[in-house]
Task: structure prediction
Amino acid sequence: MKLETIEKEFKEKVSAKIRLQEEGIKRYRVFTPFMFDDGDHLSVVLKQDNGSWILSDEGHTMMHLTYDIDEKQLQQGTRNKVINNALSTYSVSNRDGELFSKIINEDYGNALFSYIQALMKLTDLSFLSRERVKSTFREDFIACISENVPEDRRKFDWYEATHDPTGNYVVDCRINGMSKQLFIFALNTDDRTRDATISILSFEKWGLSFQSLAIFENQENINRKVLARFSDVSGKQFSSLETNKPRIASYLQDVLKAS
Result:
């Protein structure tokens, strides 16, 4: 199919602002009006690959997402589900970070339409809503602890069965094997911080031997009075999971060595 015909299909199916520019043998840059929230345009190339014509971002989209999101987080949890669902819905393949779609039966227009739809779905990951971010905090917390603490030394959603058989005072993760067990709390709201305060006071009343660690999603979002009450009873605190992962890892390693 002639280049002029392909460009015409692109304009009719997707946007009149699309244009093609030849960049080499059987390779064309596809300029579109679509962009990330920071103003960076999507990168799309039409090229021949192993005898087939494909649309490819040549790894640009995933690389751009890592500007705001840790690469490991894109490979797990809610974010990974969003990526896989978008690619599956629009028949886009992921080849080591390169997102590409084959042109079937010379249907260039519809192929580009679906491809752009998939990439735009992924750009949503750069500005997740507050509720979506909250849902990933728990997953990110579990991933962080799991990466740094052996499975036989950790227990998520732990509670003290003797004094609390119904599990009213839950610890997000308990680390065992030390003279003083470590209770870790994952905190992202005022209510969660209040609950953690009450739990620690209850553990003290029961005479448990423990030390506590609080990991916040963003401590600045917690009400000052709520945070002050919690700080009166808590041990070590990290103000943000995302910005303190190396320090958290180091702290956990020191705790495990002290066992």
User: Anything to note?
Assistant: DSSP finds nine helices and eleven strands in the chain. The first strand starts at residue 19 and ends at 24. The first helix runs from residue 3 to 13. The chain has a mean pLDDT of 91.
